[in-house]
Fold this protein.
Amino acid sequence: MKMLKSLHKKRTLIGLFLFAICVLSLAEVQNVSAYNAKAHSESEADWWGLEGFSWDAIERIQVYNTIVDLATTAEANIVLRIYIWFDGWIDWLPPYDFTPLRPYSHEVSSNLKENAHFQHCANYSQLKHEWSRLENKTYKAVKLANQTNDVRGLLAIIGMSTHTVQDFYAHSNWADLTDDAAGSWGRRDATWFDVNDEEKEMLGDAVYSDHKDAEHDISHDMLNKDYFGREHYETSYREAYYATVQWVELIKSWVKPELWEQAKAFTNEIPGDDTCFQLMQITWWAGAWTSDYSEDYTELMDFFLVHGGWMHDELPWPEIYFGTFMDYARIVYDQTPENVDHVSEYKFIPEVRWLRVETMLLRDVNDNADLLTNADMFTIVDAQVTNHYEAYWEDQEVLYIDWVTLEPIRWNVESVPIRYWVYDEDNWDDWEMFDVSPTDEPYWSGSFPVCREGYSTSYNEYVETQGTGDGMVARAEFWLMTFMKQRVNIAPSVTMELFDQPNPAFILPVVDTLTFHGSFTDVNVLDSHTATWDFGDGTVASGTLTEGKTGPEENIGSEVTGVVTASHAYSNPGTYTVTLTVTDDDGGFDTATTQVTIASAEEVNDIIDQYTQDLADTAFKNNPAQRKKAFSNMFAEIAEKIENEEWNDAIKDLTNNIRAKADGFVDGNPKDDWIIDPVAQQEICMMIDELVAYLKTFL
């Protein structure tokens, strides 16, 4: 587990001085909220690990994601301004060159406020424009990283752009709409990329509704789903996770393969550099991670001014972090129009199983352990490879809370190992652990089974734990759950293929049985399917359906594929439309059609006649013109007998007068043949036999 770094308690005059300036500056800086930093970083960490990224690369992506909020959060913006303003004449500041940061608060910060959080999208038209702008500008930034082979730049592009993608779900009614419509609309846990243009148009302005403040900007207080206390937070979190994976898959399709591999293997420029972790901690103090009981400004200033990690003289963090960030933020968040010169294809992301940990109560049992105040408690839920940091509450003896931790579960695991830690933040020299376990370890640990049966089942466990060791003692109560939430249902895609018929020349009623073939694909890998064939003559059948998966369920790009077959013979001549419908178990369906023309006896008689007339002269024994004329007269007589329903006479003429003159190589006497070509004989005999069989059905 990546342990929290210790903070050093150093109260200095410079700290008080700068904090005073900070307070005076509050009016200048507009605060723009977003998902708290933990939600941004945790929603990505496990997926990056599965992709094979190094921990250094994962942290760097997370920190560039975090800087977006640093750039638009009042407290952090103030601190950066203070460093910039006073660099060069305050001796206590580290000897860094802050020149690259000087335009920061003007050019980049203004664009970030406008474009980084969908903050000013008030209707569907603006929203559609903003998604297009983000995609086009991100593509432009990736092109630059490709050209310059800029690994750090690519990580910055991924980090900042995923932040914006994630914040769409925190700053709109999208999660509300997909939650409310899940029963009938079938769009639960849908992302913007999952929904087609018609459905987006249907949603219209409801994505933002009337949630506007006096300045006509989106009211963050009304819309935000930044933390567990907000309605629809869990839905928005899951949707942000799926959208992040879709977005990064899109970026990956733009990146040259060698640069992508270099990004996966990225290592910090300075060995042992932990600035990434420290930068994320800053927003944990500055943003929604803290509670109403926390002194945000004081905590943040303390962190900036006394945290040793920021005072490493050898660490050029302005260049490494903010310099690279600003280089690409100028592109990604630029507002000038951009020509589209790329193709975007968003992949569907299969459902994942989720771990949910809900903390309901924490109690500081030996409350005299903190000499000055009650404990400032927060938790860490350690699951799989991700540490989930839940907000701390200041000076509280008993907390009745509903902290919710969500963790996507890897598909190949049967149970999830979990460690549950409780900390007291008060002590600057060491964040002390409460003892919440009756065992020798100060943390509760266990292994929890993973739901595997499908959407309708989940595993639940209620945990009460209290430590009895020498450390600080706390009581914790929490629920563990693993579940699978069905995502947006994408209907299967159906294709109708050619049908099989006894001969290619015609199809007769009754005697010709046709075999129809269809196929389908479905990106919802857990769906099962049924099929119906409507043959257009009042007959509906299910046919035979066979389906399978192209790969493991967890693989992006895996899908269900299937084939469907059915056989049918028509009773009467005519043209029929055959419709194949494949329906998944969630009600999604797709159809494909084909037309079938069933010939009458008269039409088939004419077809055979025309076939003989079209034969080459070499197909006849002699006198081809004379033979063709004689055949034509005989077919005319047969047509008259069919019209008069003289079935026996028509059958006799077809068999004795025509077939007998073209069956020497099939089953007759060659001496009687007028037609001597073996292939022509096969064709003529087959057609006559089918027509005769059909005429016999009238007897």
Summary: The radius of gyration is 37 Å. The CA atoms of residues 466 and 475 lie 4 Å apart. The chain has four domains: 13-332, 353-484, 493-598, 601-696.
